[in-house]
Amino acid sequence: MIDFTKCFKLTKKSAVIIILIIAAVMLASVALCASPGCSFGKSELIDVSTSTGREKYLNELGWDIEVTSEERKTVLLPSAFEGVMLGYASMQTEQGYDFSSYGGSECEQYTYVITNYPHDSTVYATLYIKGRRVIGGDVHSAELDGFMHALKCKE
Q1: What's this model's pTM, rounded to 2 decimal places?
Q2: CB–CB of 64/116 below 8 Å?
Q3: What is the tens place of the pLDDT at every residue in 70-88?
Q4: Which has the closest alpha carbon to 53: 142, 132, 147?
């Protein structure tokens, strides 16, 4: 058996090198997790690429949906968010989604009827999904004088 204590002597210089290596690894981890698709929220723990996963995701946020009401579209997000879309992107950022990082990308839009919303008219939940990640969403009514608010809060 080799005695490593005789082979490796911890000096101030080697301790500083070890600390610098650990710091570099931590910095690289932070940089990687700052990129789109890295924060581990509910959508990373639930497979939202399936109808069952999307239902579970919305249930976790407190919404019951009519699964058979699902409408799916492929949408192209604008490269630059302006006007109404700037406000929408801001709402997504406020609720913790990285929506604006996906500008210029195609994603899937899923819309469902919410069955437990405390409102007399029909209310919808919309999810924007890129791959297996929820990148945005909202709750809204389709009335002319309707409303829209963040997906993650109940009125």
Answers
A1: 0.70
A2: yes
A3: 999 999 999 998 999 999 9
A4: 132
pLDDT exceeds 70 at position 106:
yes
* 94 residue type, one letter: E
Look at phi and psi of residue 96 and say left if phi exceeds 0, alpha if psi is from -120 to 50, else beta.
left
Give every strand in the sheet of 65-76, ordered side by side: 65-76, 106-114, 123-130, 133-141, 148-150
| Both structure tokens of 70 | 């699902």
DSSP string, 51-75: HHHHHHHHHHTT--EEEEEEEEEEE
Amino acid at 124: Y
Q: At residue 39, does pLDDT exceed 50?
A: no
Angle at CA of residue 101, ends 98 and 105, nearest 5°: 115
CB 100 within 8 A of CB 128: no
Residue 65's CB: how many other CB atoms inside 10 A? 22
Choose the weakest-confidence range: 12-21, 31-40, 97-106, 107-116. Answer: 31-40
Q: Residues 96, 101, 104, 106: is their CA dihedral positive or negative? A: negative
